[in-house]
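User: Please run a holo structure prediction.
Assistant: Happy to. Please share the sequence and the ligand.
User: Here you go; the ligand is adenosine-5'-triphosphate.
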Amino acid sequence: MITEDQIKEALRAVKYPGYSRDIISFGLVKEIKASNGAISVSMQLTSGTAEVVQQIKTESERALKALPGVNAVHVEVKAPAGGQTGGAPNPWQSQNKVPGIQRVVAIASGKGGVGKSTTSVNLACALTHLGAKVGLLDCDIYGPSIPLMMGIHDRPTVSPQEKLVPPVNHGVKLMSMGFLIEGDSPVIWRGPMIMKTIQQFVTAVEWGQLDYLLVDLPPGTGDAQLSLCQTVPLDGGVIVTTPQEASLGVVRKGIAMFEKVNVPILGIIENMSYFTAPNGDRIEIFGHGGGHAEATRQNITFFGEIPIFTEIRIAGDEGVPVVVSAPDKPAAQAFIHIAEALRQKLG
Ligand SMILES: Nc1ncnc2c1ncn2[C@@H]1O[C@H](COP(=O)(O)OP(=O)(O)OP(=O)(O)O)[C@@H](O)[C@H]1O
Ligand SMILES: [Mg+2]
């Protein structure tokens, strides 16, 4: 006698294509019937290409047929009529979308100093370069570095409707915790205060129409980061890692964080992949390929790698990201390729 729990357990092995989460945790399985070794399962997708439907069906059938004592399996996968034929599926529907903002994406890292803010800033500029309307939300309470990297010295102004108007540079609208810190003096934030501020940064800011709002989370995967992920209505998360950290399992912490708050993981970016010496030698300072290998292991998308380029650091210090100052250079192209991959993933 096969129980419903056994069937669910078997279906947990089936991941939603392109995501690390399984179809059960996504809540796609609507009906399960079992009698005399015959199993019938019905699933409902909220979106998805014919390819996705077929893959889920095939993998589910395979998982169920492997159960002992099963002699017949019927899996029905329903997708909305006229469902997406191109683009990526978005099985997670944000509960409280922000009007005017199409996609909200968090950029996270298991550890500090891996180049998360550099990546956020350059991806924002790269998406703008590709023609999108982009906002950037710097949630780093410990060291908000994004205003400097974006060359933004103005503070937000207040509109007649009493909304905050974000300053803009390089075509990107920015809100930052740094705007609330006077000079260099660190501010002692209390948890609820941070959440309330961030909430206002999303809802009480005049973002206008945005294709993407990128959210730079504070480094790490602790409680503060978790609460932020719950405060901002995220469509997905991206993890930035160095090759070394990926091999140390730090990426897995990032994945676990997003899974805890039901945010789909869009993919991994490997930063500081290698350095090309002036004589052309390739030096892999932090090792190489750890990000790709971990993405494969965890069955998530690998967006690409960013080598170490001196101009990336200089551009950040000068407030003109390399994607803006030298869009044709390899350093900028690395970010632009990743932005293209991200855009495609988001549909
Ligand atoms: N690919 C790269 N090539 C050269 N320098 C880089 C690269 N990525 C980041 N850096 C430099 O490394 C330093 C740290 O980067 P960044 O501030 O983006 O890291 P972070 O992960 O946001 O750090 P934090 O944890 O402090 O928020 C910066 O000086 C930045 O310019
Ligand atoms: Mg940072």
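The first strand starts at residue 29 and ends at 35.
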